[in-house]
Amino acid sequence: MGRVYNFSAGPAVLPEEVLKEAADEMLDYKGTGMSVMEMSHRSKAFDDIIKEAEKDIRDLMGIPDNYKVLFLQGGASQQFAAVPMNLMKNKKAAYIITGQWAKKAYQEAQKYGEAVAVASSADKTFSYIPDCSDLDIPEDADYVYICENNTIYGTKYKTLPNTKGHTLVADVSSCFLSEPVDVTKYGVIYGGVQKNVGPAGVVIAIIREDLITDDVLEGTPTMLKWKTQADADSLYNTPPCYGIYICGKVFKWIKKMGGLEAMKAHNEKKAKILYDYLDQSKLFKGTVVPEDRSLMNVPFVTGDAELDKKFVAEATAAGFVNLKGHRTVGGMRASIYNAMPIEGVEKLVEFMKKFERLIRFDRGEISMLHRLLHMISTADLIKNNPDDWRDKLNERSKSKGKVVLVLFAVILVLCLFVRIIT
Ligand code: PMP
Known about the structure:
Bound molecules: 4'-deoxy-4'-aminopyridoxal-5'-phosphate
Strand content: 5-15%
Strand order of the largest sheet: 2-10-9-8-5-3-4
Radius of gyration: 25 Å
Distance between the termini: 70 Å
Helix content: 40-55%
Number of helices: 11
Number of strands: 14
Structural class: alpha/beta
């Protein structure tokens, strides 16, 4: 079977180039005669891999010297506990609840101190990001916590909250390396890599050095104390070696693509194709307010659960997989991370258009004659413009709109004229 277009929310699509390179090196990594999976984490070869990976992510994100980069395990969920354990000095923190992952982090923090929910978008099924310009943040809060991109609901902060001087902690699991960030605005940035950066099993935490101390909550396990790993350059124990190696390759791929600015442009272009279609579709609709839409996760619905199911099944059969929405919200979700090519989104939208036409035809919203004419003229257009038929089809839709308007105006004038003379 050839490769499918994989819209999974994570673990997710990785750059084909990276996978091929890893396959080439599987049995013999750079003349070591072994796979990276088989080598000691104390070996020179692995030391080079982890050091180079750190250097590359520092370059990509412009991470200042006073921040540590840690390669950890335990998933992003483990940091839900590590964050309060390492940062709660006053045993108080402010949480902004914008979805399930923020809520889980908030609930975990309640085990260790007072986690205060200072804003939430639960009232509208997390379909927006609350106004965070003037929150009621307790003076003695140790930090303000956000989930910057909400994987399940498809929202993203376009402006960081005004933390009023408090340390900002962000879970960036589903927007990691998707666009440039100003690291200095955060105390801690962390994320599971299994969406944009690599295989599941690695968590990258970028932490300002003054926040890495021995002064952690009593009972904090050695492995959850950031200082343990910071002092050992992420090698306190055996790290997820193979995962780190793949992350390193993805960093190089992003650099080759032009870095985070280029990645942002690429992601904006893809997201626009999908959102533009959703905005004019008479069948599908996006579920997030336009100003807070994520570039990475695009949820949409038809409003009919059975029809959603039919769409997901037909899309899967056509090679567009993992489009089913999160089990808690239903509908569909297309995750279009860095490694999803533009072509994947274009083809998905073509498929959605075709599906929409068929459904509307079945519902009697489009006549047989209309459909037949459309099919004949589209086939003709593809035959005559094999390379740029998509652009031509778009142009034609636009000019068709204008023709319909002119015809309508002419009919109106004719009606008025007939009315006047009779
Ligand atoms: N945060 C976000 C934003 C996520 O999307 C996820 C899971 N996909 C998690 C945290 C939890 O990650 P993990 O499964 O690595 O614990």
